[in-house]
Amino acid sequence: MTGTRVTGRMRRIAAATALALGVVFAAAGCSLLGGASNVPVATDAPPKGTDGAVDFDGGFITVGDGQKKVDIWFDAMCPVCGAFEKANGATLAKAVDDGSITLRLHPLTFLDAVSNGTGYSTRAAAALTCVAVSDRTAILPFYQALFTDQPEENSNGLTDKELASRASKAGASDISGCLSDSGPYQAWAQGNTANSQKGPIEVDGKKVLDTIKGTPTVLVNGEQYPGGVDDAKAFSRFLAGH
């Protein structure tokens, strides 16, 4: 059973690479909010305004302060997001560290439907938000840690305890209490997912896309990266040229 899942997972990564970022591929199982009966739906009111590194109104978490803006719409359980991070994460981290870019992370929850009712994508998004509110320097290390030994689709994902442990190892303070009371952050992430299907998608007040069609979707200064998720050279060229 495990071998079948891994084979299917790699096949989906290869297909998405061929089709490039932002293209929906049915085998990935991405679903809209509430698209499956076992998807937990957050009912709290989402936060507004800004808190720490989180722009709740804009729908993103900010890392760095460079002039060039890189926006990534991602799902923590998406294997193609994991492939993109593996290939390009170091490039982005270096660009953040040297002041070249501002990285804006847009956590989505498409794959809640494939975490056996645990709502893993939503919980991971809430955990990242907990970190971003209190520990700016730990945001990128924790984001990267979400894709280290990434949970497979159709698994339970990481427990809240495991998420808190990864956050601590990434340099954040203990987020256990935040996670236990993270209903508003969960509602924010799920609301962002619903809004990503309604559109339009705006960056810095300018429409850049009609909707988000899949994860990862990556924009550099408002221009969508059209290359393969695992083509590090192509992404580096795109990043440098926009």
Describe the structure.
With 242 residues, the protein is an alpha+beta fold. The protein has one domain: Glutaredoxin (3-Layer(aba) Sandwich), CATH 3.40.30. The strands form two sheets. A seven-stranded mixed β-sheet has the order 1-2-3-5-4-8-9, sandwiched between helices. Strands 6-7 form a two-stranded antiparallel ribbon. Helix 3 packs antiparallel against helix 4 and helix 4 crosses helix 5.
Can you give keywords for this protein?
about 240 residues, alpha+beta, Glutaredoxin, seven-stranded mixed beta sheet, 8 helices, about 15% strand
What's the layout of helices and strands?
Elements: H1 2-19, E1 50-51, E2 54-55, E3 60-63, E4 68-74, H2 79-97, E5 101-107, H3 120-134, H4 139-146, H5 160-169, H6 176-180, H7 183-198, E6 201-203, E7 206-209, E8 217-220, E9 223-224, H8 232-241
Parallel strand pairs: 4-5
Antiparallel strand pairs: 1-2, 2-3, 3-5, 4-8, 6-7, 8-9
Helix pairs in contact: 3-4, 3-5, 3-7, 4-5
Percentage of residues in DSSP E strands: 5-15%
Cα distance, first to last residue?
A: 44 Å
CATH top level class name: Alpha Beta
Let me know the number of strands.
9
Mean pLDDT: 88
Give, in spatial order, the strands making up the sheet with the most strands: 1-2-3-5-4-8-9
H and E order:
HEEEEHEHHHHHEEEEH
Main pleated-sheet profile: 7 strands, mixed
Number of helices: 8
CATH architecture: 3-Layer(aba) Sandwich
Low-confidence blocks of residues: 1-7, 10-35
Short description:
The chain is of the alpha+beta class and 242 residues long. The protein has helices at 2-19, 79-97, 120-134, 139-146, 160-169, 176-180, 183-198, 232-241, and strands at 50-51, 54-55, 60-63, 68-74, 101-107, 201-203, 206-209, 217-220, 223-224.
